[in-house]
Write a structure and sequence with these properties.
It is built from 7 helices and 15 strands. It is of the alpha/beta class. The N and C termini lie far apart (about 85 Å).
């Protein structure tokens, strides 16, 4: 039987068998917007101007917990031997570097318990940073990091990623201390802040509950949720 002729412009089957397909290794996304219904449901109450401080704090804690689940899904694991009540078995546990959680004062502290409820063994550092409301530039007034931060995966916490100036400065602070693995958990981000972090620190992964429209003339995220620090602590 004679082999059928190949269609014009198409390779023969034998030619296709000789083709080697190389699959590229998947790259870790730099920005993850968590659209899970529970996250978005709780976020709608955080946005509501009528949500009282006591409920706002609780919601920040709950949303942070859910975002932490997403932010840590690629932490390395290793199998260890565990004896259950019935038999021995090999089961995964976290391996490699440990975690350091670093909230950016003051609003980031409101997110801390949400992370520690999942990673109770994490060390905690604090970075004091505020934004000059006229220049919109960051001013660092305090930094206390774990002594071994260079050996840990760092999770920065800041509810609002607005201009990105303060967050970028905080990333620089932990990197100068030796950290090589840094990720950011924020509740709401503006495109301008995301652009700033991905431009200046392309290796930092950002996990957020929502990416809003942008910034107003004062540098606040819109529609946003207002000043997260004031709403967490009942200040003006």
């Amino acid at each position: 039987m004679r082999e059928p002729a190949a269609l014009s412009g198409l390779p023969r089957l034998d030619d296709l068998r000789r083709v080697t397909v190389r699959a590229e290794a998947p790259t870790k996304p730099r920005v993850i917007e968590v659209t899970h219904p529970l996250v978005q449901h709780k976020l709608s109450y955080l946005r509501d101007r009528n949500t009282p401080t006591v409920h706002f704090r609780k919601l920040v804690n709950e949303v942070t917990l859910l975002l932490t689940y997403e932010a840590t899904k690629d932490l390395p694991t290793e199998d260890v031997e565990v004896e259950t009540p019935l038999e021995l078995g090999q089961f995964p546990r976290l391996s490699g570097k440990k975690v350091a959680v670093c909230p950016i004062l003051r609003a980031g502290v409101g997110m801390l318990d949400g992370v520690l409820s999942l990673i109770s063994s994490a060390r905690v550092g604090f970075i004091g940073m505020y934004r000059d409301e006229e220049t919109l530039q960051p001013v660092e007034y305090y930094a206390k990091l774990p002594a071994d931060v260079a050996e840990r995966d760092v999770i920065l916490l800041d509810p609002m990623l607005a201009t990105g100036n303060s967050t970028a400065a905080a990333v620089e602070t932990v990197k100068k201390a030796g950290a090589t693995s840094v990720r950011l958990i924020a509740i709401i981000a503006a495109p301008e802040g995301i652009e700033r972090i991905t431009r200046d620190h392309h290796d930092v992964q950002i996990v957020v509950a929502a990416i809003d429209r942008g910034l107003d003339e004062r540098g606040f995220i819109v529609p946003g949720l207002g000043d997260a620090g004031d709403r967490l602590y009942g200040t003006k």
